[in-house]
Each structure stands twice: as C-alpha cells, then as structure tokens.
Amino acid sequence: MPKNLLEALRAITVVVADTGDIQSIEQFKPQDATTNPSLITAAAQMPEYQDIVDQTLLKAKKDAGTGASQAQVVSLAFDRLAVSFGLKILQIIPGRVSTEVDARLSYDTDATVAKARDLIAQYKAAGVSKERVLIKIASTWEGIKAGEILEKEGIHCNLTLLFGLHQAIACAEAGITLISPFVGRILDWYKKDTGRDSYPSAEDPGVLSVTTIYNYYKKFGYKTEVMGASFRNIGEITELAGCDLLTISPGLLTELQNTVAELPRKLDPAKVANLSIDKISLDKATFDQMHNGDRMASDKLAEGIDGFTKALISLEKLLAERLARLESEKVTA
Q1: Active-site position among 115, 136, 218, 266
Q2: Residue 38 has pLDDT above 90, yes or no
Q3: End-to-end Cα separation, the chain, in angstroms
Q4: Is 330 a catalytic residue?
Q5: Which of 3.10.350.10, 3.20.20.70, 3.40.50.720, 3.40.1550.10 would CATH assign to domain 5-327?
Q6: How far, in Å, CA of 59 to CA of 153, rounded?
Q7: Reported pTM
Q8: Domain boundaries, the chain
Q9: pLDDT at 333 over 60
C-alpha cells in the first residue's frame, strides 16, 4: 500500500522544517529546522511567541546596563532573538538548527566570521554544542570565504541564497557542511524572464539546477550536503526525492502528508558514476566571471540579500516598539 508522500520522502531524504513557527515544528517533527530573517520576523509578530520576544528584550535591557539607550538594548536583543528561537526549536528536534548571520554583513568576510563566533558562543552559554548549529551565510564569495574559516574552526555552515553552480563549487571546495540552493526563487526568475506561467516539474529550472549541483558533488566525491530549499509546489519536491536534505514550509509539508502516492527516487549517487561531467577549476576571477555571466544568479543573490536586510530592519523596528511598550507598562504598573 502506498505511503503518504511525506512518509515516503523521509525514507530517502532528510526532511527539514523551513519555519520559525515552533508549533509547526512540533506538528511535523522534522530532523532539522532552518530559519531566515523573514521567518523570524514573522514569528516574532505572532502572539504565541510574545514571551520569547519579551524575555529576550528584558534580558538584553538588564545586560546592557542602566545607562544603555533604547537603540543599544534593541541591538543586543536583535542579536539574541534568532538564538532564542533556535534554543526553543532545539528542544523539539533531534538534529540541527540553522541560524543566520546578519545579511548586511554578506560582503564582509571578517565581520561575518566575528558574528558567527558570537552566535556559537551564545548557544554554548545556553548549553548547546556547536555540532547542533549550522551558521547560515549568503553565498557571496566573501561569505563562502568566511564559511571556509569557520569550518576549519569546527563551526559548521549552511551557505544560503545559492542559485548557480559556481556558488556550489566554491562552497564544496571551501569544505562547507551544507548548501541551500533556492529552487522556487529560480523558478520565479525564469517565469518572469520568459513570460511563462508554469513549467512541468521535471523541466522546472530550479529542479534542474539542484539536480546539476547534486550530480556534480556526487561525481567528484564532495562531502558538502545539498539541501534543496524555497519550494513553490510539491512537484518540485518529488522531482528532488533522494536529495541529501530538503527544507520544506509547513504548508507544503501538510500537502505531502495528505497525498498518498508512489514516490520514485530521482536523485541517487549510484546513478551518477557514468554521467559525463566536466570538473571546473574555480578561483575568484572564475567565480566572478561565472556569476556576472549568470543573470539569474546575480539578480537573485542581490535580491535575496536585500530582502533579508529589509526583514532585519523590520525586526529592529518591531523590537524597538515592543521595548517602548514594556517600559511604558513598567512605569504605569
């Protein structure tokens, strides 16, 4: 008897929850969980997570000291909020949580490394081993170089906003633990660029991109794991069945769970050996040349960093407003 698609997928792929919503993580019980600034910002506005936000703000205010300005308190709380959500998530899942470095540091290797070390220190102070945390960094050349430094220190990284083979190869050669190629955002770009309304799942440009990356990694024996991300429909997911990991939103997890069907494995290391794939030698000049020559990858990387930056600014504003309310409540109490 066929299983539901989620159950079948779990038999061949590690399923990761793409959400900051702790209730969804409790419902689907994924191995790992990944968040991003947009998801944390959305979760921070939900009434059920107000306690996490308030506790983070109040502790930041205490730690900042009596002379600290509201801006200083918000800055400290902002740095800690993703870790606060991460700690809650790690109480539920058996595996790892991905926590993102400030997207505004995406082109600054040294600042990215410093921020990642700080995030790991926060987790350590809360009793969480660095083995249970993946530091998420945008796949700029500078971000990849930061990841290379961190991996050598035993800090594992998840390189995100990845759209092109050149980014994937650079990550693999840097010894990155895991990459997150963005399937749905690639599809979005091609639909807009071509004027097409849709693509069959097997011809979806995002699916084809991840398949190419997966096959390249397995052909040349790279240890970096591939985690398909940013899905628009379950057809994209089923076409990538067998990928190392897939990070999936609660809505699509529900759809998979409610669909009973056969799920053939599409990505398989055993099928890669006989593929004819050329190995690419990659330095910064080649990376830049390939990136500039790939309109989709260059457009979507810049757009993704900009989007995450706007989400972070919204989160800072939300925290400032909440802190003002807390202070007002304390005065009137």
Answers
A1: 136
A2: no
A3: 62
A4: no
A5: 3.20.20.70
A6: 29
A7: 0.93
A8: 5-327
A9: no
